[in-house]
Amino acid sequence: MTPDREDRLWMYRIMYLSRQFEERIKPAYFEGKQPMFNMAKGPIPGEMHLSEGQEPCAVGVCAHLRADDWVTAPHRPHHIAIAKGVDLRAMAAEIFGKKAGLSGGRGGHMHLFDVRVNFSCSGIIAQGMGPAAGAALAAKLRGSDQVAVAFIGEGAANQGAFHETLNLAAVWNLPCLFVIEDNSYGISVAKRDSTAIPSNAARAAAYGMPGIAVADNDPDAVYRAAGEAIARARAGGGPSLIEIETTRLEGHFMGDVEGYRPEGEVAALKVRDPLIVYRERLLSDGFDAAELDDSERSAVADVDDAFAFARETPLPDAVEAFDHVFA
Amino acid sequence: MTETTSKRRLTIARAMSEAIAQEMERDPDVLVMGEDVAKLGGVFSTTTGLLDRFGPDRVRDTPISETAFIGAAVGLAAAGMRPVVELMFVDFFGVCMDPIYNLAAKQNYFSGGQIQCPMVLMTSVGGGYGDGGQHSQCLYASFAHLPGMKVVIPSNAHDAKGLMTAAIADPNPVIFMFHKSLQGVGWLGTVLGAITDVPEARYEVPIGKASVVHEGTDVTVVGLGLTVHHALDAAKQVAGRGVSIEVIDLRTVAPLDRETIRASVRKTGRLIVVDDDYLSFGVTGEVIASVCEDRSITLRAAPARIAHPDIPIPFTPVMEHFVLPSSAKVVAAIEDMMEAGHD
Amino acid sequence: MTDVAIALDWWEDGSEGAISAWLVDDGDRVEAGVIVAEVMNEKVSFELFAPTSGIISIFVPAETPVVPGQVVARIAP
């Protein structure tokens, strides 16, 4: 299952768009937070977990998904939401806490929900896995070929819900896929210090499902592995686990100065930035630079539009806090 | 929280790490575990400097496995050690409540006193800085409701060190809650009133004793953690209008110091309770019930309570700040109560 | 008179931090080695210690920008 030309161009464009989105959030996030980094201040308060470097994981998987397939994402969701087709304006507005946001400002950056593309995310580690299994069960019971995908980090593979959900998905033969974005760090704790074995893909066998390790943050390789797993799930072949070796180019959260990372590590990663690497590969595979530039320009235009909207659209009324507690 | 002549003020974060360090120095059975507590010194700076001083055997970074490492803490305690475990955000209790309320809290009871559980579970609480509904909760009542554990929350650095020391010494499981706004880590804002003198020597603040932090005669205002500071701000504001309020800092949620609260309301005849946790089935109801059931107390006005309403905590600041308690809400409640009861 | 300054090696030049809280007041008597302020750059905290004992005069209030090397207070014997 190799990506064709159209898939690869889509992946590049979405990776680029996703990166632009994150790069635009950064200065907005730091507004009002200098020189005193007070998390409560500015147009985007709270925590912010950006996905620079992890884009290949999102595009390689979501390239195979339809709007009616489900995706659950963790506290670092933007690249996944974008790849899934979440409304960009409403997403930006939600991050800025606006009334036109996906949840009218109630959720914020870690709690993005878009029912039109069956996307949700949650801030508690590994807790998106159970709901993905449940959505997959619904598909199975209805005789639909929809699938559900849960994205987690490598730290989540040590959480109880990971083990329980893998077993449940396998014993019930559910059409789902579990994708681990291994960026080597759970906040400050390196994978080698938290995980008893080097590869979480190897854990899949313990739960009766295929486990695939994807190296090198390669969108084409993610595409191939995810394509097979999703096709298998749609055909009734049950769940799979994929672990992708990816890179977190920024801190765990904005403001994290990463004193726990060895010197030079981040600089070395930035040289292998997946955007740079993929663009080079596409060019050497015969893509036209002008075509890629066009994609980049249109991505920037989309992000500009979303941010302009998010800035201008009004805040909700405070009393709207009481809406939607119950249906 | 009185001034002394020796200027040695600390933030709550520093007071906590100092208390833990002193106890680890005294007692080789004390150890610390949790996510990011070793190299990073804790996401909220609760364990700064401990790894360098005591090494990786006694200061351990754990995987993201709360059920496992908190369960392990119960076992360590049963084996005679004194673990101090960090649950990064109280909101994460959902993934690990069993070892807390079914094991730690019941170990001494089920064993008829044979096996104790001298563990401290320290955990961050509170919002007001836009972290959303899964990272801003308080949940005091959720823990206080379950028998067998003590629950404490300091409002200032002096009490933080004393309560941590007492918690580590206590043979029972103690949930040590620290409010994110009061930590003094700067990036969560600074509440100057929480930064207080902290003696260098070892001392304990007794668990189960509330403190009258501002004396008064007209209204008793009961708070905990951050809401103590709202009440103290309100005290200053209404003093200018001739109203004298008595502020009680609970310090311990469970076991609740009903005597101190009742003695105060016996004197003032009026009660307001301020809590940034959810309104219903919580601390405010418990304090009011504890006063109302005391037949020796005559109330001059119906009690009032200020709390976060029964809704998930919204992200967007205009909503979050609308629903959270504040000193302005306390002032309004005091004035309302004084006006209504005026005879 | 002894300077109390933001250490040169705390964070990179060109970046601003701030004193998040003074732990003493202007005019207080301080002992050498006591923490006098918490300083922040992004999310990292640093402790500012009194280098000598004496009476401290504070020049820079909390929450204003500071840079490495900046003198923020002085201690007179």
Report on this structure.
The complex is a heterotrimer of chains A (327), B (343) and C (77). Chain A is of the alpha/beta class. Chain A has one domain: Rossmann fold (3-Layer(aba) Sandwich), CATH 3.40.50.970. Chain A is built from 11 helices and 9 strands. Chain A is globular and about 50 Å long. The termini of chain A are far apart. The relative contact order of chain A is 0.17. By secondary structure, chain B is α/β, with parallel strands linked by helices. Chain B has 2 domains: 9-197, 3-Layer(aba) Sandwich (Rossmann fold), CATH 3.40.50; 211-340, Rossmann fold (3-Layer(aba) Sandwich), CATH 3.40.50.920. Chain B has 12 helices and 14 strands. In chain B, the strands form 3 sheets. Chain B has a 7-stranded mixed β-sheet with strand order 3-2-4-5-7-6-12, with helices on both faces. Chain B has a 5-stranded mixed β-sheet with strand order 9-11-10-13-14, sandwiched between helices. Chain C starts with a strand and ends with a strand. In chain C, a hairpin with a 2-residue loop joins β4 (35-41) and β5. Chain C is built from no helices and 8 strands. In chain C, the strands form 2 sheets. Chain C has a 4-stranded antiparallel β-sheet, with no helix packed on it. A 4-stranded antiparallel β-sheet of chain C has the order 5-4-2-7, with no helix packed on it. Chain C has a single domain (2-76), classed as RNA polymerase II/Efflux pump adaptor protein, barrel-sandwich hybrid domain (OB fold (Dihydrolipoamide Acetyltransferase, E2P)), CATH 2.40.50.100. The chains are: A alpha/beta (327), B alpha/beta (343), C mainly beta (77). At the A-C interface, loops of A face β2 and β7 of C.
Keywords:
heterotrimer; A: alpha/beta; seven-stranded mixed β-sheet; two-stranded antiparallel ribbon; 42% helix; globular; C: 77 residues; mainly beta; OB fold (Dihydrolipoamide Acetyltransferase, E2P); four-stranded antiparallel β-sheet; 0% helix
| Most extensive chain interface and residues per partner | A-B, 51 and 43 residues
Work out the radius of gyration of chain C.
12 Å
- CATH architectural group of chain C: Beta Barrel
Name the CATH superfamily assignment of chain C.
RNA polymerase II/Efflux pump adaptor protein, barrel-sandwich hybrid domain
CATH class wording of chain C: Mainly Beta
Distance between the termini of chain C: 7 Å
- Number of strand elements of chain B: 14
Number of domains of chain B: 2
- Distance from first to last alpha carbon of chain B: 35 Å
CATH class category of the largest domain in chain B: Alpha Beta
Q: Tell me about the biggest sheet of chain B?
A: 7 strands, mixed
Query: Which CATH-level-2 architecture of the largest domain in chain B?
Result: 3-Layer(aba) Sandwich
How many strands in all of chain C? 8
Helical residue percent band of chain B: 25-40%
Instruction: Output mean pLDDT of chain B.
Output: 96
Q: Please mark out the parts of chain C with pLDDT under 50 across 5 or more consecutive residues, or reply none.
A: none
Helix content of chain C: under 10%
User: Low-confidence stretches of chain B at least 5 residues in length (pLDDT < 50)?
Assistant: none
